[in-house]
Amino acid sequence: MFYTIEETIEALKKGETTSVKLVQASIDTFEADKKSDKPLNAFLEIYDDALELAKAADEKISAARSDGSLNKLFSEFPLLGLPFANKDNISVQGKKLTCSSKILEGYIAPYSATVIKRLSEKGAIPLGRCNQDEFAMGSSTEYSIYGPTRNPINRDYVSGGSSGGSTAAVAANQALFALGTETGGSVRLPASYCGVYGLKTTYGVLSRWGVVAYGSSLDQVGIIGHTPRDIALPLSVMSGVDFYDDTSADLPESDKLASLSAYKDFSSLRIAVPKQFEEAKGLHEDVRAVFEDVKKWFAKKGAKIETVDLPVLDASIASYYVIALSEAASNLSRFDGIRYGRREDNGKGYDQLYVDTRSDGFGPEVKRRIIIGNYVLSEQFSGDTYKKGMSVRARIQREVADLFGKYDLILCPTCPTASFKLGEKYDDPLAMYLSDLYTVFVNLARIPSISVPAGFTSEKNGKMPVGIQFAGKMFSESKILQIAQAWEEEHPGSGIPVKS
Q: By three-state DSSP, how is residue 220 classified?
């Protein structure tokens, strides 16, 4: 496996590698890892037709090399022969889709998600499905019926979540890029923990058709890669309006993504640093040190950095969890053993069937969130709490939009801490929820943000990766990716994977 998409495409064109070799390398690593004392557990399975798709791609490449039409071929199919990893809540037709939950064991997706279909149409190969927190509810990929995914930097630590499997697969160089999903930071958080790039797109840029819903007004597909360019190319292929998703939207300047260049005009760049995040309790000293280094880099490049006061951000965690858990309780009501989900029927009637199916099928974190969500939506509150959460969200959207009238970028850490040890916060849901302190405002405001690998904690704290966020106004993916590419070119290898 090569490090970047660019390197891989060049190697495929020159015949230095083949798509079959790339897929086979992932298969071999997957099989070897299962026998390890501390398995990474990034992939749950490699799809059985991945090698056949790779052979077909190699035949096209070989024929084009013979008749001199390689450039034309890759212009039409820019991701030809490139394997990618897929989170276990994104549908691939004819493949298992379980959301890492017992209640969906054995379920086969009847169709492919739009993002999968668009990647496949441009030659990319779905390599396999990856582990995640059950129904994308978690920040560590420990809440999975398949066991936790470990961090490839140090396998005693968590990979982050809920897209921990997809992220670990990229960081361990088992896949060139991967798809995850975001509701409150589930792509950026593991990207920070594993030392790679993770993009959360503007709400609607990537279709949610074929993605199992958690919080519908917050959910969004995200992309994990070794470099910003490794994210930009798949984004250019997947983005845009989808007939099947009424919330989908076109991405302006998407034509710039296929050949992403580094940002140049830093002297005109104005950056806002929210005071609430700098003063937040729980910000680890090592994360603060890395954040200061990134601010110095921007200042040295000529950017103007100012601290801003956004008091409404203090309410972002509360607003997020009220909305997300209410929507989760509603969305997961369909998993009842009749409409969806394995059935636990003891012949005692429908009410008992519901109770038995859901009690046996859902894990503790999912049950916790369903109970809280239903409590918030209960007759006792008449939906008042949910409405209040939505009004706070609307204010966050307005104030963040107003901020981008003066500034180009919001800069902040991705997470208050680096990765933590397996089991450390498993039984402490409040501590786990606070991992999202810096990420949820992005989902509430529906803006794009990328987590950039920016440094490491000290030796005494495990030398674990630290990510910093570059957040921009709605539909500014091209700009924040260009800024991230400028960072990558001056810090080469900052998102380079470890040896798997």
A: strand
* Residue bearing tokens 């990034």: 42
The secondary structure of the chain in percent helix, strand, coil, rounded to multiples of 5, reads: 45, 15, 40
Contacts of 228 (CB under 8 A, 6+ apart): 197, 260, 450, 481, 482, 484, 485, 488
Active-site residue flag, 87: yes
Q: Which of 19, 26, 87, 248 is catalytic?
A: 87
The active-site residue, picked from 26, 140, 186, 254, is: 186
Span 26-58, pLDDT tens digits: 999 999 999 999 999 999 999 999 999 999 999
End-to-end CA distance of the chain: 10
Active-site residue identified among 19, 100, 101, 162: 162
Tell me whether residue 500 is one of the annotated catalytic residues: no
- Which tens digit of pLDDT belongs to each residue from 54-96? 999 999 999 999 999 999 999 999 999 999 999 999 999 999 9
- What values do phi and psi take at 89, rounded to 5? -120, 15
Q: Residues with Cβ < 8 Å from 266, sequence gap 6 or more? A: 298, 301, 302, 303, 486
User: Which of the four pLDDT bands, split at 50, 70 and 90, describes residue 1?
Assistant: low
